[in-house]
Amino acid sequence: MSTPLFDRIALIGIGLIGSSIARDVKELGLAGEVVISTRSAETLKRAEELALGTHYVSSAADAVKDADLVIVSVPVGASEAVARQIAGSLKAGAIVTDVGSTKASVIAQMAPHMPEGVHFIPGHPLAGTEKSGPDAGFVGLFRDRWCIFTPLPDTDQAALDTLKSFWMALGSRIDEMDPQHHDKVLAIVSHLPHIIAYNIVGTADDLETVTDAEVIKYSASGFRDFTRLAASDPTMWRDVCLHNKDAILEMLARFSEDLAYLQRAIRWGEGDKLFELFTRTRAIRRSIVQAGQDVDAPDFGRHSLDAKK
Ligand SMILES: NC(=O)C1=CN([C@@H]2O[C@H](COP(=O)(O)OP(=O)(O)OC[C@H]3O[C@@H](n4cnc5c(N)ncnc54)[C@H](O)[C@@H]3O)[C@@H](O)[C@H]2O)C=CC1
Ligand SMILES: O=C(O)C(=O)Cc1ccc(O)cc1
């Protein structure tokens, strides 16, 4: 148990990410009170059954009253609606943060509504799974994972340090980035892989000459990896695509060009070109593994870590 960092934390949205934060806060004793609010009554009831917080309220505005830290964990397209709901009830000096997968759009949606004296600090934990909802969260999700902050130019350093201490208490490694740069980096390392996964699984489903039953029966582990990503939450990923449009389209254009190069090399039997690319990409995988960031089957790996405690 740590000393509480905050008297009262408000969690707006209690799905995979919000509920994982709640579980860590409870396990580590990081807050005196944890007030939970979410859009649907059914999810709020489930959060209460799981005892994720200390108070459960249907209104986001009521939830943030007197909160020292407010964490918004909703699909990025809902950011503005939440900012509007909470703006008038925030306590002076409160820290408001989010966990959204895109940053420029979340800032554009939320910052204009934040009152003077409230510290709005956008954040993004690079940790998750393909699952969603309050049952999907677990203790330790953020351990040894990066959490990237994209502070605004006038961000208060003391508030930023406090927020960093919170995420470090959850075990995260901390980085800071410009929001536009964040959105480009994430477009290639996270958003494109999901889009490619949705696409390849869709293509397999549409084939006339190979049945769905054969795809399921004979799916090799490479295809299975894609199906895991392609099982990710449709609302969340629709919002990511719509709210990081420019960076995703830029990366997709590069990707399509490179795919055409590969297609041509296969057509013309240019084995040396294929061999050169496959050798280069193998080295990237090896450096990821060497850096200790091999995160195969992240959810199962994490659960087994927890089970050993
Ligand atoms: N799933 C993942 O692996 C990761 C997700 N993220 C980001 O975290 C955020 C939350 O994602 P998850 O927890 O995975 O989603 P989730 O679908 O598990 O949970 C979303 C929660 O938001 C609530 N919600 C939706 N619209 C709302 C509204 N207008 N007002 C209040 N509550 C609302 C839902 O009731 C639910 O409790 C998203 O912005 C996502 O981009 C960040 C890192 C990883
Ligand atoms: O499940 C996976 O492999 C993920 O990549 C999880 C994830 C999804 C979205 C994020 O913004 C960060 C992490």
From TrEMBL:
Protein's name according to its UniProt entry: prephenate dehydrogenase
Keyword Amino-acid biosynthesis listed: yes
Annotated organism of origin: Neorhizobium galegae bv. orientalis str. HAMBI 540
A GO BP entry: tyrosine biosynthetic process
GO MF terms, alphabetically ordered: NAD+ binding; prephenate dehydrogenase (NAD+) activity; prephenate dehydrogenase (NADP+) activity
Catalyzed reactions per annotation: prephenate + NAD(+) = 3-(4-hydroxyphenyl)pyruvate + CO2 + NADH
EC number in record: 1.3.1.12
Pathway: Amino-acid biosynthesis; L-tyrosine biosynthesis; (4-hydroxyphenyl)pyruvate from prephenate (NAD(+) route): step 1/1
Keywords: Amino-acid biosynthesis, Aromatic amino acid biosynthesis, NAD, Oxidoreductase, Tyrosine biosynthesis
The UniProt record lists the keyword Heme: no
Family per similarity comment: Belongs to the prephenate/arogenate dehydrogenase family.
Domain named Prephenate/arogenate dehydrogenase: residues: 7-296
